[in-house]
Amino acid sequence: MSTTLNQHDYLGTSQYIAQKTEKTQSCLEYGGGETEGLPPHCPQPENESLTKPEQAMISIDPWAPGRVTCSLKGGITGLRPVTNQYSVVLLGPKEWQTHNLNIFQQSNEKITDAQITANCARECVEQSYKAVDNAQLEATDQLKTRANLVHRHKTQLEHAITAITEEIRLLETERRRVQQSLLVLTTPTSIAGEFLQLRCSRLESDLVRDDVEEQLVKEVTLCSEVENLLNRILEQIKLQIVELKTVKARLENDWSDKIHTYNIESVSVNLSNDSSQIMWRAGSTRFPTVHSTPTSYENFTQECLNAYETAIRKSTDLRSTLNKLYIDFIKDLRDQATRVDVALEEKVKLTQDVLRQLEIELLRCLQELANTEKLIVELRDSKKGLNNAMKLAQTRLDNRLFRRNIENCRDMPQLTLIEEVKSIGERISAVLAELKRAEECQAKLIKTRSILEHEIMVKQKTLYIDREQGQLLRSRYPSATALSGY
Fold it and tell me: In Å, what is the CA distance from 258 to each residue of 140, 151, 272, 306, 479?
């Protein structure tokens, strides 16, 4: 309440009452007090009518037609005016003086009562203004305290909304990161699967479950486990984002209510008796049924903040767990990829060594096959020479059979030729046996050559699959940064 305006109101009322009091006192001094020096319009000491009861007025003119009546129109005296065509006679001089004295006394009493009432009214107004000012100051202090409390809660909610918005952004980033990791993870899975399919096209002798295939199967299994793990993490992230958005909506609703309340409290604090916004508001003192208590108010805001802290903690733990999982499974994937590459490199080296040895062995086989063919030619030539010798010995023996009589003698040349035929026959049999063995060796060498050539072809195809296709395919294996979703 404005003190300046109150003093101005008090001053104007006091001046007005003082002026009225002075006029009344002057009138009383003139018409009241002691009997000495009384004005002629007041009762004089010699008037006996002051102590005598008032009597009915008699007619002063014998021709006046006045009469005593007892009707409601006659007033208190019960007298009708005594009148004629010249005057109206109501009272006598003494009654007139008494009437004037009564008027002054009544006026004095009313003025005294008015002065007392004015003093009481001024005191009441002063006390009322003081009490209202104190009540307004107390209410203003309470409103300021409440506004500060609402502002503190509003600030806490603003910080919480900012933090939870940032947390939602970080979690959205992690969600996109996991989705990108799942997309990138299809690359090593497809690489390992395609490589396994390529190795299935190896020829029969190289279709072995070697260390490369074992490591590739482990890599496929590991990729599948990591994919399942990332899918579970992705679902947890989606649920956590929903929870954060729910808590954020709850915080924003509470924050919006507190903004509105703070504006109302600020306007209420800044209102004064001179404000243009004040007006009569009927029913403003009612208690709405939806009123909350200070305890429920504090509990509601604290529950919102507790829900925010819980959601933030869960989200932070989830992101921390996700980072640890990324570190672990990326290390596992890269280590397994390294093991696959090492096994593949060793397999390629081993296949190259086998291929080189097979090529050397094929050269030896070809060389030996050429030698065997030469031997066969030589044996066949030797057989021809022995056949000629056999023919010669048999021809000689046959010619000697045509000797006559005593000349057909079993002499030493005959025996020698027989022994020669026998010896040549044995030699021819031996040569034929060697020729047969040589031809068998030739056939075996030819078969070995075909086997070696087939194995060389197998190893070359295996090398082509492992080295040309496999290592090229493995060179496209995603990096650790790509697997991290960046």
Answer: 19, 8, 23, 17, 50
